[in-house]
Amino acid sequence: MNAKRSVGTTITEHILTQQRTNPEATGAFTTLLNELIVAAKVISREVNKAGLTDILGDTGRINVQNERVQKLDLFANQVIIQRMRHVGQLWCMASEEDPDLIEIPAEYPRGNYILVFDPLDGSSNIDVNVSIGTIFGVYRRPEDSHTNEVLLNDVLQPGVEQVAAGYFIYGSSTIMVYTTGSGTGVHGFTLFPSVGEFLLSHENIRIPEQGKTYSVNEGNYAYWDERTRGLIDYFKTPDKETSRPYTSRYVGSLVADFHRNLLKGGIFMYPADLKDPKKPTGKLRLMVEANPLAMVVEEAGGYASDGNGPILQIEPATLHQRVPLFIGSRKDVQLAEDVISGRRVL
Ligand code: P6P
């Protein structure tokens, strides 16, 4: 049996094949993605042995999101920054864990890509062994960026400008899902520790146009407005014609909830709520959570909305801006947007 058949398609082969279809490709993006994959392998190793070392628990620090920073959060953030800053392909980076932009140290060459990421999303689930993940998006340095100085505006681009996006989910196995958009499809790769490689396991993922699952934290019901309550009640109301009630599934780890819905169909919702006056537009972040997953889901045939319009069209005002998020099967998300915007009354 030849080696290829025994191992299958590696992520490196897949990226190189995609690079060859793009005449202007210089290999810079391939280098960037390959280094991010190495970082994910390091994080995966620590996540999978977290219960065996003293890396569990929190650092006692509070991050820019006013959340307790778990030790593994900090570790993941440092791994990505340290690996990516020497790649020579980045203009700058932005992390959910850092209040400001992350500049490339002077001793390393800079490039023309911008990496935004949530190093370990769902970290509150780390010590209860629930799947968690790394989410990333890649932008180009804006063409009108002529100074040698990295500016916040270089990063504050709408999600539609992303040239790639994806996530790693550290669960029963470690899976990478990514897309480079423009019809190239969404593809999933499973890490085979014995080979040390991500191998193609989910080629050309398409999300069902309509699902049978809704994912939301119903504990926030008292803090939602009438339209939001009406929408959630709609999914719970029996009606044979529209295949309701939907099944409720909520892990509390965005990457886990998103990944399940991507493969099987369904809608994930984190609506605006009045629970925390400091977070009137919901909990999830536009740049490092909503935009990357919106690119993935729309490339797979789904849709992502803030309840009024496409997530990918939002012009960011601040780096850690939060948005309401309705994401998943196109028909379900479109219904959610029509109800939340008031265009449809249930
Ligand atoms: P809640 C995890 O902290 C996270 O950012 C996402 O991974 C997850 O979807 C959400 O928060 C869960 O929030 O308020 O339902 O616990």
Report on the structure:
By secondary structure, the chain is α+β, with helices and mostly antiparallel strands. The protein has two domains: 11-202, Fructose-1,6-Bisphosphatase, subunit A, domain 1 (Fructose-1,6-Bisphosphatase, Chain A, domain 1), CATH 3.30.540.10; 213-341, D-Maltodextrin-Binding Protein, domain 2. It contains nine helices and 15 strands. The strands form three sheets. The protein has an eight-stranded mixed β-sheet, sandwiched between helices. The chain has a five-stranded mixed β-sheet with strand order 12-11-13-15-14, with helices on both faces. It has a two-stranded antiparallel ribbon with strand order 1-2. Helix 2 (11-20) packs antiparallel against helix 3 (28-48) and helix 3 (28-48) packs antiparallel against helix 4 (71-84). The protein is globular. The structure holds 6-O-phosphono-alpha-D-fructofuranose. Residues 121-122, 124, 217, 252-254, 283 line the site of 6-O-phosphono-alpha-D-fructofuranose (P6P).
